[in-house]
Amino acid sequence: MANKVVYTEPIDAYFGYKLGTLEYRSVRFETETLDKPNFQGNAAVNYTDREPPWTPIIEHKWFEFGKDERV
């Protein structure tokens, strides 16, 4: 018998959908370039609310390799 079990199905399936099917956000990547020097002032901001319909916004210019003046 194994000492550990790794369960990779959705958590609502594990509990037999006793509270119904949970809503999940899917992953979709979109790239947009803005002709402005700053949008959010950080490399990454995570949005955890139900709205807006995205989770993070990444500004690559804030990483060490970023040299572009645009966002």
Automatic annotation (TrEMBL):
It is an enzyme of class 5 (isomerase). It holds the Pfam family GLF. GO terms for molecular function: flavin adenine dinucleotide binding; UDP-galactopyranose mutase activity. The keyword Isomerase applies. Its EC number is 5.4.99.9. Keywords: Isomerase. Residues 3-67 form the UDP-galactopyranose mutase C-terminal domain. GO terms for cellular component: cytosol. InterPro entries: UDP-GalPyranose_mutase_C (IPR015899). It comes from the Bacteria. This is UDP-galactopyranose mutase. It comes from Faecalicatena contorta.
